[in-house]
Every structure is written in structure tokens, then in C-alpha cells.
Amino acid sequence: MIANIKKFKLLQDKEDSLVEGLGVTMLINLAHLVSVKPINVATQAGVVQAYWIRLSNGKKYKATEIPEELSELLKNDVMNFAQLNGSEIDSINDVH
What is the pTM of this model? Predict the structure, then answer.
């Protein structure tokens, strides 16, 4: 029997984040998902939307693809950047 398992595409290490399209597909039981936070990740092509995923066992992953139902919940919470004295700053409040 398959529980509430969904497919995520994860970045394995820092080199993966530099090459867009790299990563590993992993099936995760949503019952073990503690948090999903939108982030931006630098790639060779520029900055791409990604997510910090934290599981109940304490493991954290960067994901470039998450299930549609989760991304729909976060679609209005993408990170926005503003310029301040020539430097980019995150203009969304970081709530923990």
C-alpha cells in the first residue's frame, strides 16, 4: 500500500545548484513533511525558484520541483527582491 507519497526533485550538493536540470528524484511521504519554504537558488543560467524541505527526521533538502498541490499553496509567497544601495535584499518577511 502506498501512503501519501509524492515526487520531489532534489539538489544533492552545491554543484547541482550550479547546473540547472541536475538533481535526483525522490518520493517523499507527505506525512513526514514538516515544512516547505520558497527560496531562490543561483544557477549558471541565473536565479531559479526552489524550496527548502524539512522532514520529521530533521533532514533538510533543496528541491527544484515539488508536487503541484504544495506549489499552489505557496504561489503567492515567492520571494521578491528589492534594491537597497545597489544591493539585493529579500523584501518578504521570513517567518519561522
Answer: 0.69
